[in-house]
């Protein structure tokens, strides 16, 4: 949630000369509707079902860098799917640092619940993958921190949560 998954994922993919997949973008493209429209018309459960299908499809593809949606790892079986196929890097920063980046408006249907979701998701996310603490880092320093972790041997793909 606003930690830089898409921005850093694109940069990492370019650096590694790998395809980049943004899970939210894949869901939107497949559905032909925005995230906000999907939430409005199908509810969160409908969106999450689409997200899980898109995740399964993305993981079946060739080597990649995948930016996961904020709630993607909270669907049953999703963490196991990701861990079986990709190196899972969990980007983290405190909510107080992330909240100004969230913005408002229809593009973020869960904005009103952002802090509560952040707190609720934290225990699971702390146990998943390799945590990369981006607290207080500039964009350049965050990129460097991510590249240092990725330079170590790992799975064929990289998923960023």
Structure commentary:
This protein has a single domain, classed as 3-Layer(aba) Sandwich (Rossmann fold), CATH 3.40.50. The chain is 55% helix and 13% strand. The model has no long low-confidence stretch (mean pLDDT 83). The N and C termini lie close together (9 Å). The chain contains 7 helices and 5 strands. Helix 2 (23-31) packs across helix 3 and helix 3 crosses helix 4. It has helices at residues 5-16, 23-31, 35-59, 78-85, 95-102, 114-127, 139-150, and strands at 20-22, 65-67, 86-92, 130-133, 157-160. The chain is α/β, with parallel strands linked by helices and 161 residues long. The protein has a 5-stranded parallel sheet, with helices on both faces.
- Major sheet summary line: 5 strands, parallel
Multimer state: single chain
Strand residue percentage = 5-15%
The CATH homologous superfamily is termed P-loop containing nucleotide triphosphate hydrolases
Stretches with pLDDT under 50, minimum 5 residues: none
How large, in whole angstroms, is the Cα Rg? 15 Å
Q: Determine and state the CATH class.
A: Alpha Beta
